[in-house]
Design goal:
One of its GO terms (biological process) is response to oxygen levels. One of its GO terms (molecular function) is metal ion binding. Helix content is 39%, strand content 22%. By secondary structure, the protein is α/β, with parallel strands linked by helices. The longest helix is centred in the last third of the chain and has 18 residues. The chain binds guanosine-5'-diphosphate (GDP) and magnesium ion. Guanosine-5'-diphosphate binds next to strand 1, strand 4 and helix 4.
Length: 280
């Protein structure tokens, strides 16, 4: 698909008002957790490492002029927002420990009492995000933080509104899934490509970077719950003419804990897809 090129707009970066100091970007990672006690310390460690060790070149804007190549920062400004939904395995205690270890400016625990679903977990997390970019990802180590610097680079390269990790392009791939799950995921993407022509190759993935205001707008527009939610985000993004860049990622099935994808989710995915087809 010519998704990336087709959706790329000539729009240039927004300019800062005259005389204001250069703004440093900040990335808020939303990490929803439900029974991720074993995974959480590792994912947080990998995130901190990825953010701290990236030497980044960032364009600076002085008095409305964009000065590329002049402004270097070491490390990336970030925060990790953990949205735990009362996990019975004690994930919250682990998160509290991590908050102590890394500091409450880096790890923000924003728990909820009970399991209220992934979609509302993002909405809840967004309310506490102070970055101008938001990264959403799973906490089960399926999404490796090493790709985040690539997401950031891609976003800057095309000044994209959204950068989506894709398992279905370039070096992207899926490891550890059985045939059934591969067929479900491929099938869902394939049917949706035909029905909705969304302009991105991985619709059901949930490893993405958004401009904060774009994510805010999309979340307001999205009506679906469950797995179809990620797909609706991309479909609505296209409707609203947001630009989407893609970064190939390898997705590794979780080692610890259980997936929450069941038969019910598949049925509701198909229902959601048809609703989107009928209403967009
Ligand atoms: N806060 C919160 N997190 C959830 C909920 N359901 C799943 N998650 C988290 O969302 C991510 C994706 O869920 P997962 O079960 O791995 O889905 P799968 O990768 O599609 O099998 C993981 O980090 C889960 O811990 C929920 O109801 N609330
Ligand atoms: Mg998972």
């Amino acid at each position: 698909m010519a998704s990336e090129e087709a959706s790329r707009s000539p729009r240039r970066s927004r300019r800062e008002p005259e005389g204001r100091a250069p703004r440093q970007d900040k990335y808020s990672v939303l990490l929803p957790t439900y029974n991720e006690r074993e995974n959480l310390p590792l994912i947080v460690w990998l995130l901190v490492k990825s953010f701290s060790e990236s030497i980044f070149q960032q364009h600076a804007e002085f008095g409305g002029e964009v000065l590329n190549d002049l402004y270097f920062i070491c490390g990336i400004n970030y925060e990790i927002i953990i949205i735990d939904d009362g996990s019975p395995d004690g994930t919250r205690d682990v998160a509290e420990q991590l908050e102590k270890i890394y500091g409450s400016d880096k790890i923000l625990l924003r728990p909820r009492e009970k399991k209220l679903g992934l979609g509302t977990a993002y909405i809840h997390g967004m309310k506490h995000a102070t970055g101008n970019y938001v990264i959403i990802m799973d906490a089960d180590l399926s999404h490796h933080p090493k790709f985040i610097p690539e997401f950031i680079r891609k976003q800057k390269e095309g000044n994209f509104d959204i950068v989506s990790g894709t398992r279905y392009k370039g070096n992207g791939g899926v490891y550890g899934w059985d045939l059934k799950r591969k067929i479900i995921s491929r099938g869902a993407n394939f049917i949706t490509q035909i029905l909705l022509r969304p302009g991105a190759s991985d619709l059901t993935g949930s490893f993405r970077l958004y401009r904060k205001e774009v994510l805010q707008k999309l979340i307001e527009k999205c009506v679906s719950k469950g797995y179809v939610f990620q797909m609706e985000m991309i479909v609505r993004a296209r409707q609203l003419n947001y630009t989407i860049g893609e970064v190939p990622i390898s997705f590794v099935d979780r080692v610890y804990g259980e997936s929450k994808l069941g038969g019910n989710e598949i049925v509701s995915f198909l229902k959601g897809l048809l609703t989107l087809f009928a209403t967009t």
